[in-house]
Amino acid sequence: MKFIQNQKKGKLEKSVIFLNNNKTMLVYGFTDFEKLSLDKLIREKKISGYKNITSEMCKMKIGNILSGYKFEIYDGKLPKEKVVLFNNFNDDEINVAIKCLKELSKGIIMAVVTPTSIEWTFEYLINHLIEERQWYKNNNM
């Protein structure tokens, strides 16, 4: 969600901006068993599918991953985390998916792909999300 200024009224209003690309989840850090469970939840709840991110893809930009590219150019040392990025999901779809993911595993970092984060590498994004989670923990939020 993005805030834009209403030209006539001079105030900020919420405006939902969907990225013009495929509706999918990007997942990282899930075991093969967890991916089988995720496949089952996707079928049962009619959630859009996912693309798996591997450590070799860590230097790729999120937008390139969403476009279907897979440049295995760097075998990075990414943190051992489970991450799900929602791309082009509406609020209701995200809520259903979050509920399902919480049943699957605890401690999953979840985020929405934004016009800013789509330009970041996965490595940069995951580190940013970990820092953000730690900030919220430190500030009891």
Overview of this structure, please?
With 141 residues, the protein is α/β, with parallel strands linked by helices. It contains 4 helices and 6 strands, in the order E-E-E-H-E-H-E-H-E-H. Helix 1 packs across helix 3. The two termini are 21 Å apart.
Low-confidence stretches: 1-8, 13-19
Distance between the ends: 21 Å
Structural class: alpha/beta
Number of domains: 1
Using only C-alpha atoms, the radius of gyration works out to: 16 Å
How much helicity do the residues have? 25-40%
Number of helical elements: 4
Overall pLDDT level: 84
Order of helices and strands: EEEHEHEHEH
Q: Which descriptor suits the 3D outline?
A: globular
| Percentage of residues in DSSP E strands | 15-25%
Biggest beta sheet summary: 4 strands, mixed
* Neighbour order of strands in the largest sheet: 4-3-5-6
Q: How would you concisely characterize the structure shown here?
A:
The chain has four helices and six strands, in the order E-E-E-H-E-H-E-H-E-H.
